[in-house]
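Regression report. Comparing outputs from two consecutive submissions.

Submission 1:
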Amino acid sequence: MKPIQVGLIGAGVVATGVAKVLERNQNEIMRRAGRGIQVTHVGARNLDKARSTLGIAADYSSQLEAVATHPDVDIVVELIGGTTLAKDLVLKAIAAGKHVVTANKALLAVHGTEIFAAARDKGVMVAFEAAVAGGIPIIKALREGLTANRIEWIAGIINGTTNFILSEMRAKGLDFGVVLKEAQRLGYAETDPTFDIEGIDAAHKLTIMSAIAFGTPVQFDRAHIEGITKLQATDIRYAEQLGYRIKLLGITRRRDDVATGGIELRVHPTLIPAKRLIANVEGAMNAVVVQADAVGTTLYYGKGAGSEPTASAVVADLVDITRLHTADPDHRVPHLAFQPDAMSDAPILAMDQVITSFYLRLTVADEAGVLSRITGILAEHDISIDAVLQRESAEGERQTDLIILTHDTLEGSMNKALAQMQALPTVLAPIVRIRKEELA
């Protein structure tokens, strides 16, 4: 049977990995797909560099749209990133009747609803396993492997750069700025690391997973996003003493206790019990925990980025599309797991409606009655205390650190309590607040 013909747009790190994996594993891929998969067209701005980097025989063109709509191309692989040109090329490929594979999480998190609707109208597939957690097959797990389950929540370490930084801060006791420079030197962080360290990259990925888990439209603009730039080595050390580790987590949770139902969608630094497996994911690795009613807790772990790990997911999508190339569109797995006419309209909850527990660090005057005033304010807002740690003052010091762990409470209640505590004359610095999840 004639090989499926692929138009590859982009010639960067992931595209190079795709070319290598397809060449090296062609026999295995053919046995699984039922026919060969061949990159026959490549679109890139710098053609000499693309030929040298990819090292494959194909028709090279600097006209990216021509590759996306070429009549001989069956599947378009978009690997250029961004949300403007990539969106235009993907929509034109779909309009030309091409299936699409993309590793572009930002594109799908922001424009996924429009792209999936266009693909449905044309009867083509958009596959995106590589868009979330690199080589970890979390999209397939959520969309197919767990389809019998009612998913309750997902929590993931889904950005390798931030996990490397936090791992180094914990292991070496260094502050954020020092470790960031080292991460950039080693190539773990970009020259401009904003998307990673501010949590935006993780939020793109979480938005996609949440939509698949709960059958809602992609709603990146409703996600709550906090990065790790304000984290201090002091809090990582205190968390360790209390039996916790701090990770940048993406968390999405179904909530049935609010009037109309709702979905939590949030990315922020989080204390996790050190005994949890996900708390022990170190370096640039990724991990996702899924809690579902039938199967219970499952953990997916592996490399979340890199040339061949991400290429592994891209090629897996190519195999899936090749298998289903001639299938009736109505009998394919829906893009977001749920049938389009059965999507939920459950809203994304505002952060003051989120329920979680908290780590608080207060720098307070070392005098009698301070703790009782603090705990009194928490009690006024029905916030119960799980643990208290007070650092002994050195001789001559007039201030000390007071660490409080709370039980679950509404974020809105905690916000009100924090405002009152911050106003106390005995609270001498801005209060540090980090959310805490038991993930039980």
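Submission 2:
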Amino acid sequence: MKPIQVGLLGIGTVGSGTFEVLKRNQEEIQRRAGRGIEVTMVADLDVARAKSIVGANVQVVDDARKIIANPDIDIVVELIGGYGIAKQLVLEAIEAGKHVVTANKALLAVHGTEIFAAAHKKGVMVAFEAAVAGGIPIIKALREGLTANRIQWLAGIINGTTNFILSEMRDKGLTFDDVLKQAQALGYAEADPTFDIEGVDAAHKATIMSAIAFGVPVQFDKAYVEGITKLESQDIKYAEQLGYRIKLLGISKRTAAGIELRVHPCLVPSKRLIANVEGAMNAVMVQADAVGTTLYYGKGAGSEPTASAVIADLVDITRLHTADPLNRVPHLAFQPDAMSNLAILPMAQVVTSYYLRLRVADQAGVLAKVTGILANTDISIDAVLQREAGEGESHTDLIILTHDCVEAKMNEAIAEMQQLSTVLAPITRIRKEELN
């Protein structure tokens, strides 16, 4: 049978990894797919560099539209990234009747609804395993492996850069700024790390997972996003003393009121497996009614781990290439006409528990005033830790862990506590997730 012909749009880190793994494992891949899968065209602005990677047998062009226009190309792999030209090229490839594989989480989180609708209309597939958690097959698990389940929640460490930073801050007691420089020197963080450290990258991925888990449209604009830039090493130490570790989590939960979709730092009990995921590794926990809790762990980025996911999509499309479009796995797991209109909850309506750190004057009555405000706001206290003031110090840290409460109540309590003359600095608030 004639091999499936693939065109790569971009041959950077992931593109070169995809080409190399396909070439190295071609026999194994063909045995699994039922026919060969060959990269026959590559589009890249640096034609000379691209030719040095793929050799003389692959056509290299500097215009991606030449690949889309080639009637022999069956699958277009978009590895350009971003929201701009990538969106145009993906939609043009779909309109030309090409299947699409993409690792572009930003594109799908923001424009996925439009892209999937276009693909459904044309009867082609858009596969995106590589868009979330690199080489971890979390998309396939949510779309297929857990299809018998009613998923209740998912929580993931889905950005390796921030996990590396938090791991180093905890292990070495370094400041955020010092570890960020180290991460950039090691290549874990970009020169402009904003998308990573502000939680945007994780929110893109959480948005996609949430849509598949709960059968709702992708709605990145409704996600709550908070990064790690305001975390201080002392909070990591206090969390450790209380039996927790701080992780940046992407969380989505099904509740009676709607769907939670949020990314922010969390205190996680040290005994949870996910709390012990260190360095640049990724992990996703999924809680479902039939199977219970499952955990998916592995490399969330890198040339060949991400290429592994891209090629898995190529194999899936190859197997289903001639199948009736109506019998394929839906893009977001649920049939397009059965998608839910459950609302994404605003953060003020989310219920969780909290870690609070207050820098307070070292004088009598401070704790009573703070706990009084919490009591008046119907927030109950789980634990209190008060650091002994050092010799000559006139202030100390007061650490409070709360039980569950609605975020709006916590906002109200923090605003009132901040007004106390004995509270000497902005209050630090970190949400706490037990992940039971």
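Expected: both submissions complete independently.
Actual: both completed, but the second showed a warning that disappeared on reload.
Relevant detail on submission 2: The CA atoms of residues 30 and 249 lie 37 Å apart.
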